[in-house]
């Protein structure tokens, strides 16, 4: 029975079978790793980076992480529940273990030692008793990553040649600083000349505007523009807080017409 049959490749590796779909050497001395899983506040980016660094034998500051980029990253479907580790983490480990195996062989030739004696720490390949060392950058020109990913269970089932454990450590999450200090979510985005908007609505969905004092609304604090189209009415301004504060006052300058059937049902 073949190795592939004994150790079937993960689902996402089967749909994205090329090593360069997961790994690149375009940002040396940083190693580029692609992931289709994105950070949604669950800390998955940190966890997957730990897996990647563990497999490659590098530190977290030696990785160039590209996640959720539709041009480069593999399509790993949803980022949901535990699947980011169960599926995404397993796929990432499979791909990067192949990358590590390629570099281990190149390092063994450069050091003139057996591949199983080569160790990796912080991106440096060495062998006990040998003074010479080599790095990923020094070996990169010898590596072709435009190849199908294979499984090497006899050599890479475990990361015993990696001499520094990263998985299991408590690592500060890079995404938390922005989340706690603003700037991490879509509603925190600020663009040049960006306007905020708030719509004025009546409680009844079929109400229409009978009359509106546009000049009075324009005079409210924070209101820089007023948009009126039929019964659609909105105020716009660059200061969102001021706009929100003026929204309640704007309603007093609008007279709404309720639908006739609603008027007939109202108690006398």
Structural class by sheet pairing and helices: alpha+beta
Radius of gyration equals 29 Å
* Overall number of domains: 2
Oligomer: single chain
Number of helices: 10
Largest sheet: 3 strands, mixed
Distance between the termini: 86 Å
Give your account of this protein's structure.
- The strands form 4 sheets. This protein has a 3-stranded mixed sheet. Strands 4-5-6 form a 3-stranded antiparallel sheet.
- Residues 1-5 and 154-159 have low confidence and may be disordered.
- It has 2 domains: 3-177, Aldehyde oxidase/xanthine dehydrogenase, molybdopterin binding domain (Aldehyde Oxidoreductase, domain 4, 2-Layer Sandwich); 190-265, Aldehyde oxidase/xanthine dehydrogenase, a/b hammerhead (Aldehyde Oxidoreductase, domain 3, Alpha-Beta Complex).
- With 268 residues, it is α+β, with helices and mostly antiparallel strands.
- β5 (124-127) and β6 (130-135) form a beta hairpin.
- Helices cover 33% and strands 19% of the residues.
């Amino acid at each position: 029975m073949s190795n592939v049959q004994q150790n079937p490749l993960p689902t996402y590796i089967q749909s994205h079978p090329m090593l360069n779909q997961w790994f690149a050497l375009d940002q040396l001395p940083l190693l580029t790793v692609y992931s289709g899983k994105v950070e949604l506040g669950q800390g998955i980016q940190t966890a997957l980076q730990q897996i990647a660094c563990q497999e490659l034998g590098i530190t977290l500051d030696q990785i160039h992480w590209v996640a959720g980029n539709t041009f480069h990253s593999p399509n790993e479907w949803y980022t949901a529940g535990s699947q980011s580790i169960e599926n995404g983490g397993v796929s990432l480990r499979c791909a990067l273990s192949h990358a590590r195996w390629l570099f281990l062989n190149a390092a063994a030739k450069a050091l003139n030692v057996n591949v199983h004696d080569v160790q990796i720490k912080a991106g440096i390949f060495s062998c006990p008793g040998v003074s010479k060392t080599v790095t990923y950058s020094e070996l990169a020109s010898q590596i072709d990553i435009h190849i199908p990913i294979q499984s090497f269970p006899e050599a890479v089932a475990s990361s015993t040649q990696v001499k520094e454990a990263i998985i299991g450590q408590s690592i500060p999450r890079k995404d938390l600083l922005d989340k706690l200090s603003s700037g991490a979510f879509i509603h925190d985005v600020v663009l040049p000349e960006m306007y905020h908007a708030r719509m004025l609505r009546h409680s009844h969905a079929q109400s229409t505007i009978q009359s509106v004092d546009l000049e009075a609304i324009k005079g409210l604090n924070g209101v820089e523009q007023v948009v009126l189209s039929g019964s659609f009415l909105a105020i716009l301004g660059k200061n969102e807080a001021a706009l929100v504060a003026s929204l309640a006052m704007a309603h007093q300058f609008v007279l709404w017409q309720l639908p006739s059937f609603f008027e007939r049902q109202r108690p006398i």
